[in-house]
Amino acid sequence: MNEAQFLDDHAVLIETPQVIDASEYQKYSVKRGLRNEDGTGVLVGLTEIGDVHGYILDENEKIPVEGRLRYRGINIKDIVDNFQSEGRFGFEEVIYLLLFGRLPSRTQHEDFTKLIGGRRTMPPGYWEDIILRSPSPDIMNKLGMATLGTYSYDDNPEENSIRNVLRQSIELIARFPAMVAYSYQAKRRFYNNESLIIHAQNPGFSTAENFLHMIRPTGEYTPLEAELLDLALVLHAEHGGGNNSAFTVHVVTSAYTDTYSAIAAAVGSLKGSRHGGASNRVREMVNNIKDNVQDWSNRKEVLGYLKKILQGKAHDGSGLIYGMGHAIYTASDPRAVLLKEKAKSLAENVGGRIQEEYGLYELIQELSPKAFAEVKHNEKVISPNVDFYSGFVYSMLGIPEELFTPIFAVSRIAGWCAHRLEELSLGSRIYRPAYKNVLGARPFIPMGERE
Ligand SMILES: CC(=O)SCCNC(=O)CCNC(=O)[C@H](O)C(C)(C)COP(=O)(O)OP(=O)(O)OC[C@H]1O[C@@H](n2cnc3c(N)ncnc32)[C@H](O)[C@@H]1OP(=O)(O)O
Ligand SMILES: O=C([O-])CC(=O)C(=O)O
């Protein structure tokens, strides 16, 4: 049998019939993508963790408003303003807030930061066997494998009591940075033929400092770089129960699976280019625009190219302007607003071509709604999401592209763990939505009579 021919022939069987006509979905009122007719999400749960607000419903019409994000009821802007003005790192405080539902006192913060720092090490053999011996060209893929591999190093992997899952959560949150950083180093060694650099972790460093230390060949970083990465970690940590990866955690947790299986599933979801993977696609897309648009500040030229992207005639053919649009936010994503401020001031400091590139980002932001209106005849209010400026900021910190989405995971694991604990503590039912079969019955044909 010719395997390539087999795949060609059989892929056609799946692709071409298109038996389910679009009208069938309407007929049965199917909530495709778990969406209501107006595009809002179907309400499937209640949570006390993240609160994402992006529009107001007025007589069933979506009225765009500036976006707002709260962690455990507290506006992220207030969280950020406070730790930045007091000159401390914010990520560990946010992990505590997300997991336990309250802000830590000074002593609780110190104790928790020490706990995270102390839990970074793994039992003997883990780094060598799970990370270094089986590198992957994709760090998210490797992170999923490494998460599942952690199961074998846990003496009590299956117990789903809150206390045990909390222990597993704290350990995973503490270890994700090294799982990502060492996977990246292994990838550089085995796929890029560069020297293997494994810096020892420092239990006294913040998550941001420890991560920069592990990925830099010299192990060094500036206070400003650590502060910016810490901010990015804070901003990516949580986004309600309905985002694709947190919802994945709810779904698989409701089947009562183990922590490592639930978190690995979430990693797989986040990797997707419509979710956390978009940060990489934004960089690729902007590079593609830079290569194809002669004058980055020419509005007509940039608009023309964005329209081509939307028509699927440029960039990757997907028809998507990556980093733009959101399922909930309309006028703005508050995280993108904060990241944009940082991108702007960093670019201004560097000047030259980088500042011009920042100008191009701003132009894409400004012209995308116009391109949408002209190509899709859709006047929907869209704005940049968190993935739009994050990669540009990371690039200015010298962070390589293959780490953009993994850094998202290093942060979002805090939210995932909080959602897993919430799902377990609320003891909800197994998620089991319905799929209507529209094919009906068919007669069985004996093998000798088949074509
Ligand atoms: C961390 C995060 O996950 S943030 C999101 C990161 N993802 C991206 O940046 C990828 C680009 N953006 C998108 O694909 C979408 O905006 C999503 C996936 C984020 C949200 O999707 P939805 O909730 O379906 O968006 P919404 O209901 O507002 O819009 C639906 C329509 O607009 C289109 N659309 C929305 N955003 C975009 C975009 N950036 N480029 C092209 N088309 C888009 C959708 O494809 C869909 O078109 P259709 O009606 O012809 O099928
Ligand atoms: O909420 C969403 O759908 C996606 C998102 O922005 C996130 O998970 O951060």
UniProtKB/TrEMBL annotation:
UniProtKB keywords: Acyltransferase, Transferase
Pathway: Carbohydrate metabolism; tricarboxylic acid cycle; isocitrate from oxaloacetate: step 1/2
Record: active site: H326, D387
Source superkingdom: Bacteria
Keyword field contains Transferase: yes
Signal peptide as annotated in the record: none
Pfam families named among the record's database cross-references: Citrate_synt
NCBIfam families on file: PRK14032.1
Family as reported in the entry's similarity comment: Belongs to the citrate synthase family.
Protein name, per record: Citrate synthase
